[in-house]
């Protein structure tokens, strides 16, 4: 019988990432997101190795290890987790854990460690086993997808360092080659602009700008069609329309959008960015015609928290640029403690939050490398507690004003007056993050993204 691995992680996306990574190396894998499901699988199936997260609700990795040992005392057990403190490490060591690996994993080391306990199949044997197994085990066996890369190696904008992102980029590449309407499920704050730039390269569209549409009740189908026609005729635009904001768009506005798209010039490519939180609902508020197309050909983008290698790539690539813009060109490195803080964070705001944190930290950083103190100040749960776009903008505005006052020696009001900002104090605080947003329209006004 072929050897199998059981993966347990309460984060479904991370469990899927590990499963996909192992399957790319021809290991047979089952995954679970709840310890009780994993224990049931251990009782019913024979596994040669368990790979488990540590920090999980209800039952942590140590408790799961204890119960797994009751089922199979000799089963090799690897814990893959974020930062574990010394008492936790001692606890699992005393319970006989085989190995502890820290997130983000070193992929080459991870695969080599797994090979110490499980022998991967030959590619042909793997294909035979999967084709014969199918979904035969009472519908519980996961559907396995083998990764076959056909997209170009020379990505310029999107990072595909992580296994989950490689699957997404492959799906996106296939959609771009085959369709003029591309549907993408995105977590909030994902790197939409980078995706559009990559699509523009793949499609070899001329032009320098994208046209971004947010369907709303105040925009008629006639006006939308006029915009689409202008984009098709204007050489300064790429023939690429990005459609966003579905979670806040009523069905009537979506219907007008569909009507305009039906009449749009044929050479336009439409890319729909649909919030994953909306699609996860039992009855998503999506136009029925669009929903039918979405269900047939949806590319699902993974959140940043399950893509630590992509996160590291973006930090290395973007931090020097941000530092130059903010007048702190000496920042080109990240101290180890700061890197660990960035990698251990969950990033609920994804790429947009990463950019905001890096920019804010670069403004206040006084050394030549990004420190943990600067980073922690702007992560959710710190004193800044930045949980949404408005909070990020308020803190960013406050940091800019403080930098301006420190550099010039003038008061906040004098700085605003010099900038031509018409602001009348209302008795509320005019310092720090409590200072009201000077340009609140940034929260609601769609902006065309420049390539």
UniProtKB/TrEMBL annotation:
Keyword ATP-binding: yes
Keyword set, alphabetical order: ATP-binding, Nucleotide-binding, Phosphoprotein
GO MF annotation terms: ATP binding
Top-level taxon of origin: Bacteria
Keyword rRNA-binding included in the entry's annotation: no
Residue ranges occupied by any Response regulatory domain in the UniProt entry: 4-118
Chain positions with 4-aspartylphosphate modification: 53
InterPro entries cross-referenced by the UniProt entry: AAA_lid_NorR (IPR058031), CheY-like_superfamily (IPR011006), P-loop_NTPase (IPR027417), Sig_transdc_resp-reg_receiver (IPR001789), Sigma_54_int (IPR002078)
GO process terms (BP): phosphorelay signal transduction system; regulation of DNA-templated transcription
UniProt xrefs under CDD domains: REC (cd00156)
Domain Sigma-54 factor interaction: from-to ranges: 158-363
Signal peptide: none
Pfam assignment, any one: AAA_lid_14
Name the UniProt record assigns to this protein: Response regulator
Species of provenance: Rubellicoccus peritrichatus
